[in-house]
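Bit of a strange request maybe. I'm writing a small parser for structure token strings and I need a real example to test against, not something I typed by hand. Could someone generate the tokens for this chain?
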Amino acid sequence: MTPVPSPRPLRVAVIGGGPGGLYTAALLKRGDPAREVTVWERNAPDDTFGFGVVLSDETLGGIEDADPAVHDRLRRELVHWDDVHVVHRGRLLTSTGHGFAALGRRRLLELLHARCAELGVRLRFRTEAPPAAELAASYDLVVAADGVHSRTREAHADVFRPTLTTHRCRYIWLAADFALDAFRFEIAETEHGVMQLHAYPYSADSSTVIVEMREEVWRAAGFDEIEESEGEGEAGAESAARCAKIFAEALHGRALRSNKSAWTAFRTVVNARWSHGNTVLLGDAAHTAHFSIGSGTKLAVEDAVALAAAVDRHPDLTDALAAYEAERRPVVESTQRAAAASLRWFEEIAGQLDRPPRQFAFNLLTRSRRVTHDNLRLRDPAFTAAVETEFGCPPGTPPMFTPFRLGGLTLRNRVVVSPMDLYVAEDGVPGDFHLVHLGARALGGAGLVMTEMVCVSERGRITPGCTGLWTDEQAGAWARITAFVHAQAPGTAIGVQLGHSGRKGSTRRMWEGIDQPLPDGNWPLVAASPLPYRPGVNQTPQTLDRAGLTAVREEFTAAARRAARAGFDLLELHCAHGYLLSGFLSPLTNHRTDAYGGDLAGRLRFPLEVFDAVREVWPADRPLTVRISATDWAEGGTTAEDAVEIARAFAAHGAAALDVSTGQVVPEERPEFGRSYQTPYADRIRSALGVPVIAVGAISSWDDVNSLLLAGRADLCALARPHLYDPHWTLHAAAEQGYEGPAAPWPAPYRAGSRRPPTGRKDV
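Reply from user aminoacidic:
Good idea to test on real output. This should exercise your parser:
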């Protein structure tokens, strides 16, 4: 695009001479040679930290479009490779088709120095930049590319509003003087704990080597003592020597070297705003993403391309900076979500090691959710087929269409229609809408269809429109629905979720005002503690005393008996989302001082009493599962570690599976929304306990389902909104994958529609 000429050439100050700052300077100068562009870099030209940098094909394409001269020079320098080597307990597994490119960081800087010099950019090395506020007074644009410890960001924190999160692992950047032939991940199970190596070539004779481990492992191994005795900047050589011994096989007995290397805890940087007046953040100053997805330099360079293009397009600088952020922020946030998933996977890697070797490798490759089953099948069909065979997929059968046995119930596939509250019942009685809703989804091919939360008492409803099982009339209406499913969708199981609203009851239907109290006709609430869901909005519940606890437990058992007579194949106890039983589990909602409060064992006591009572009356050959909130997404609430212990307790009492959800316990929660964002909690419970888990939470595609199952992160996947959009989601997933086997049979009246209809001529 031809730049729009500005009234006068811009004067631009760039703080920081890393790849992002240099490339921004070069592009701005190339966009208008009359611009005065100056870069301040406090280090010497040949000072650099780290060794190799990885650039994706997408990034290289952006560089080529923005400045072909830089792209041509990079192309001649890049080292390319396709393979990933994963070493699992001495066994090497290889996946190909990944397409990496890298070069040395020092060489990248040399190329950018040369390009800036030939374009006329002023490079001021060994010079501390003046404060951004001072530069902003005399320059039209100030680009703060001053890194993760950005002084500019700190000086204007009130505007940028940064959030900095330090994580649980320590890592160190080192180098080896030989070129690996692939990207290599290797695990060392030492007496101190698990350590991992990430390594890749960046030149014909050099490789980057990153060694990472949990903070407690780092301390137990004595790396903290090296740092204390030799100083942070001097400890690299001794640490390199020790790491070389730990990973001697991967390094073929060769040494590692450092370059002022220091052990670091990764810090995620997020800013509410990226610009302040005529000052703008770029690269690590604005955002960071964990090195395990190779993102730092990539993001900075892409920022440079976007910022320069925005300045060229918009004569008004305010518009330019707004356009830059609008373009880049969604991309960066997506990358940060993927990086966060990858980071957490490596933080919890000790729990992954007992997986079968190929499943471990597949789990590692798909950890960030950027690489999926379908994507990997295109890249490396042989490797993916081997993982499928190890998983137990029959020939030609996608993972989601492999059967699964849950207690005495065999599900023909791994898809669950998640419980979804409909709020259209009359006096708790399910009607025609429920019949059509659940019946349609049963005909749609899912292995298991779940009801909404069915309330065990009238005052245990969320809204006046909730269904119930506190009367025989309600049970009869449910029997009509289960009979339809069993007769018209044979092979589909139907389950009931039993719950009590607790402090979140007596509210309007969702579309009338979610969690808002009724304008009239409210009923009294009960809960673990007298804490309103929202003070000043929702009513204060009555604390359940001994008699009240007994009464509620009997309401659950009576409802369970009716559910069994109604013909349900599975019962799920709802202990999530801040409803009554969940309210006992969370320390944020249970402030009791008796035997039903206090530590986790006390908070578990009543939910386990209810579970045991329901288990006693529920048929032994039908599975009983539990839904939990594995985190409250709020400070002081249930943690991931607590969730494992909660799951352990229910499993010990006979739960056939844990349905692992999160949140909705307190209104001040701050969920980390994103694709499949709740599945790491299911994965952690499954890895720790070996108990079957149902994963939920923004799982929207059949590729996601296959990926989660094949990686061993879940045994079943529950989907809600996709089944609202498409009642036949499972059958359509089978058709799109070319599967026509017994796990997804089309009802006879629908078979003519089992192929996607043509959408119009494609030769026009």
